[in-house]
Structure formats: structure tokens, C-alpha cells
């Protein structure tokens, strides 16, 4: 493949770049080197276009000679501050739109999406079956009631695994802009006869994970705390569930999906998770143990925009494309601790 990789200098992008080169593909990277993510501007190098995805001239230049596009460039993070709402829409929605408009005869697109498009994960009530709880109320969180109750009877719910056909319910600006990108790409595919695969990433971690930026995921935050000799602080009661997927497994999913595009229907969505459900408390404990640091403290703090449980079934990606994550959580967290990034 001759690939344009947008966001190729970022955390996931760097690993995808390595994987593409290892597989023998030709790669052009387009990256804006956002100052809130990258401390320094890069040296000039062949195969790198420094430019903003919203600038059609930069995008067109980067697309020269390309047959497949992997679109990772985005403003990531929590998406809960209203101050950032226009930046999310501009970077993610408008950025995707400019890219789509510039694609010309290119028909193959991988789009980086997120599990956040589902909102809260899957829940079942003993009496009401599968239900969709609304956003958690501040007064419940204040009182330490972290589990969302059944919206019909208030009973406790059983969390489960989300599949790709679950209802989409983005609950913050980041999630809304990511889902908007999926919709725009699907519209492009219908209009042009192109094919797009949207990869809904779970909590990605591993070497090169951003730290001390607004984009730092919890595993990087815990690692930084341990390195400073501080106690990792686990929010809520630590029993919120996630699926942590290693960045090299994610990179493999990206390149596999890109290579499969010519055989795909106009729009496909795949969840990308390790398949192992874990809690934030367990991740903190495992990192502290592996580092030999102090035991984490469960603080009861909360972030209003957080969902309680979100865990995915990634069977579609495994069954259809033969993807197989290589890292279990323990090995992956050791890798995170011992990496330089
Ligand atoms: C993460 C990503 C999001 C991605 C999503 C996909 C980040 C910042 N967010 O969201 O972009 O779309 O996965 O599933 O990478 N927590 C603590 N202590 C802390 C910080 C956080 O206990 O010091 C808790 C949070 O309250 C939350 C959990 O850790 O319950 C995970 O937080 P975070 O790493 O920010 O990830 P997500 O919100 O799941």
C-alpha cells in the first residue's frame, strides 16, 4: 500500500508508522505537531508533511501518490470543557471533512474512532432486560453512588460488553465529534463508492503514551505518580470497568484493517479492545506492584464526564480479519513501565 497516515507523529500514529514500514508499505505522514501535544517541531524529513488537517493545500500535498488513507489526526481527551468545544469540532469534524473532500480518486480509508461513541456501556436489568441508563447525576456521584441504576425501576444493573450494533450515544464534545467523523466518512463512501473502516479504540496504553498533557490516559497518570514517588489516586470506588489495549496491538489492527479495505463494504465498524475486562483499581494495583511503589489510594473523587463502565466485544475484528491481540495486561503494563516514553 501507499499510505497517507494523518496524525502519524502522535502516540498511536508512531506505532502505526513503525508497523506499516515493517510490513513494507510506503508511508507519508501528515501531522500538525500541535503545541499542546508536541514540545518541539520536527526536523524536515522525506515522507513527512507538517501541516494541519484542516488546510486543504497541506492535505492535497500529502495525498500525492497515495492509495490508502489512515486518519488518526484528532484532538483527543475528555471533551468535557465547554471552552474546547469549538476546537473539537474544528479539529475532528472539520478536519475529517477537509480530508474527505481532498481524497479525489482514493477509495480506501481507515478512520480512528473511539468507544466513547457508545456513551455508557451495555447494561442489563433483571426485570427490564437491556437498558440504557442516562448520564449519572451529580448528587449521586457526590454521595458515592457511582453505579448507574436501571432507568425504569432504579435497581442495580449488570454491566456487559458492547457490540458494534449497539446504540450510539456520544456524551461529550470529543465523542460527538468522533461520531460525526464516522458519519461524514460513511456519507463520503456512499457518495464515491469508497470504503471506510471505523476502528473504535478502547483505552489504548503502552510505550510513548502521552504524559503530563491533557491527553494522558489513566495508565500514564499512574505511572507518572509512581515515578515521582507519589501514591496513584484511583477515582470513584476503583471498580469502574475498562478494557486496556496495548498500542502495538492497536497498530496491528489498523494495518490489518487498511489492507482489508478493498474487500470491505462501504462502511464497517470494529471495536478494538483486548477482550479482557479490568477495573481501574486493578490497573493501579498492578502498576504499583510491578513498579514496587506504594499501594494506590481510592479517593472517591469523580469527573462529571466519565462513564462508569465501558467494555467492548472485539470478536468481529477477530473473526472477520483474524486480529489477535498479543499483549495480556500484565505484560503490557510491564512494557509501559520499562519503556522510555
Ligand atoms: C479514554 C480516553 C479517550 C478514549 C476512551 C476510549 C484518555 C484521556 N481518554 O477515556 O480519549 O476515547 O478511553 O475508551 O486517554 N482516573 C483515575 N485517576 C486518575 C485519572 C483517571 O482513577 O488520576 C479514572 C477515571 O475517573 C476513569 C478511568 O480512570 O474512570 C479512565 O480514565 P481515562 O484514562 O481518562 O480514560 P477514559 O475516560 O476511559
UniProtKB/TrEMBL annotation:
Pfam families: Epimerase. Residues 3-123, 163-273 form the NAD-dependent epimerase/dehydratase domain. SUPFAM superfamilies: NAD(P)-binding Rossmann-fold domains (SSF51735). This is NAD-dependent epimerase/dehydratase family protein. It comes from Kribbella soli. The lineage of its organism: Bacteria, Bacillati, Actinomycetota, Actinomycetes, Propionibacteriales.
Amino acid at each position: 500500500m501507499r499510505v497517507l497516515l494523518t496524525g502519524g507523529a502522535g502516540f498511536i500514529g508512531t506505532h502505526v508508522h513503525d508497523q506499516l514500514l515493517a510490513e513494507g508499505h510506503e508511508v507519508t505522514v501528515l501531522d500538525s505537531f500541535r503545541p499542546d501535544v508536541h514540545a518541539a517541531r520536527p526536523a524536515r524529513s522525506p515522507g513527512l508533511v507538517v501541516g494541519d488537517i484542516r488546510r486543504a493545500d497541506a492535505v492535497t500535498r500529502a495525498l500525492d501518490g497515495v492509495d490508502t488513507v489512515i486518519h488518526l489526526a484528532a484532538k483527543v481527551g475528555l471533551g468535557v470543557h465547554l471552552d474546547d468545544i469549538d476546537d473539537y469540532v474544528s479539529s475532528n469534524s472539520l478536519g475529517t471533512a477537509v480530508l474527505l473532500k481532498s481524497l479525489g480518486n482514493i477509495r480506501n480509508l481507515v478512520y480512528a474512532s473511539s468507544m466513547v461513541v457508545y456513551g455508557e456501556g451495555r447494561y442489563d436489568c433483571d426485570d427490564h432486560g437491556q437498558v440504557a441508563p442516562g448520564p449519572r447525576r451529580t448528587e449521586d456521584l457526590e454521595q458515592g453512588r457511582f453505579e448507574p441504576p436501571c432507568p425504569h425501576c432504579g435497581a442495580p444493573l449488570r454491566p456487559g460488553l458492547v457490540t458494534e450494533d449497539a446504540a450510539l450515544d456520544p456524551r461529550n464534545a470529543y465523542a460527538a465529534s468522533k461520531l460525526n467523523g464516522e458519519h461524514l466518512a460513511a456519507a463520503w463512501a456512499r457518495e464515491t463508492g469508497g470504503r471506510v473502516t471505523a476502528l473504535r479504540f478502547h483505552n489504548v496504553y503502552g510505550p510513548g503514551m502521552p504524559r503530563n498533557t491533557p491527553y494522558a490516559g489513566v495508565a500514564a497518570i499512574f505511572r507518572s505518580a509512581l515515578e515521582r514517588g507519589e501514591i496513584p489516586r484511583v477515582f470513584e470506588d476503583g471498580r469502574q470497568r475498562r478494557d486496556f489495549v496495548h498500542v502495538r496491538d492497536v497498530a496491528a489492527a489498523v494495518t490489518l484493517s487498511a489492507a482489508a479495505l478493498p474487500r470491505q463494504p462501504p462502511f464497517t465498524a470494529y471495536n478494538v479492545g483486548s477482550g479482557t475486562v479490568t477495573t481501574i483499581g486493578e490497573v493501579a494495583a498492578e502498576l504499583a506492584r510491578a513498579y514496587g511503589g506504594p499501594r494506590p489510594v481510592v479517593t472517591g473523587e469523580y469527573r462529571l464526564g466519565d462513564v462508569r463502565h465501558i467494555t467492548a466485544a472485539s470478536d468481529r475484528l477477530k473473526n472477520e480479519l483474524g486480529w489477535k491481540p498479543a499483549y495480556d495486561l500484565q505484560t503490557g503494563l510491564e512494557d509501559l513501565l520499562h519503556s522510555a516514553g
